[in-house]
Write a structure and sequence with these properties.
Recoverin, domain 1, single chain, metal-binding, 38% helix, mainly alpha, EF_Hand_1_Ca_BS, two-stranded antiparallel ribbon, 230 residues
């Protein structure tokens, strides 16, 4: 698609136009380009272009943009242009490591518990002050809520709250909040095992209940040690 002349290479100008459709910031794209264009010629061959695409996927899934991330399992990169080849991922989404790290989860759990959840759930009214406290634009916070309320019940459980906090921190780091929840961000408790690799519905069916997180160890043990940072 980018190498329309079949020359076996793409120029910086053409690649930049295409990579911009990933929704990543220019700063991140610049870093991706520097890593992919190894000899600094301003041209990418096929292999280098693949590296760039892989790094875009890493960035979109909250992973570090570095060559060490290249071997991590990530879904394919997403581009807003409708003509882009969105291939199904080769890894089943249920095998993806959750993008929320353990130490961060402990922090988010501590904030969750401080908001007095009822039956393990927080209403929108209780979450709203925490979101507004980030000083992010209201439209961004609206999208954070949409993405984190995975089962659309107007409440956040412990895992959904962790997703919301993760997205808020990403936005504060000037990372774009995705339009749809990346597979790596869907909490393991909300993932539906699928037989077709990668074809994973993001909204669980109504049979999936909030009970699923009960099987996890209580976050309180970890949370007690975590500082209460909002």
């Amino acid at each position: 698609q980018v190498d329309s002349a079949n020359a076996g290479r793409v120029l910086a100008s053409d690649a930049a136009v295409f990579l911009k459709k990933s929704g990543l910031t220019d700063l991140v794209l610049g870093k991706i380009w520097d890593l992919a264009d190894t000899d600094g010629k301003g041209i990418l061959n096929k292999q280098e272009f693949f590296v760039a695409l892989r790094l875009v996927a890493c960035a979109q899934n909250g992973l570090e943009v570095s060559l060490s991330s290249l071997n991590l399992p990530v879904p394919p990169p997403r581009f807003t242009d409708t003509g882009s080849p969105l291939l199904l991922s080769g890894t089943a989404s249920s095998d993806l490591p959750w993008a929320v790290k353990l130490e961060d989860k402990a922090k988010y759990d501590a904030i969750f518990d401080s908001l007095n959840p009822v039956n393990g759930l927080l209403s929108g009214d209780k979450v709203k002050p925490v979101l507004l406290n980030s000083k992010l634009p209201v439209d961004i916070l609206g999208r954070v809520w949409e993405l984190s309320d995975i089962d659309r019940d107007g409440m956040l459980d412990r895992d959904e709250f962790a997703v919301a906090m993760f997205l808020v921190y990403c936005a504060l780091e000037k990372e774009p909040v995705p339009m749809s929840l990346p597979a790596a961000l869907v909490p393991p408790s909300k993932r539906i095992p699928v037989s077709v690799a990668g074809a994973m519905p993001l909204i669980p069916s109504s049979t999936s209940t909030k009970e699923s997180h009960q099987s996890l160890p209580p976050g309180g043990i970890l949370a007690a040690k975590a500082p209460l940072t909002q």
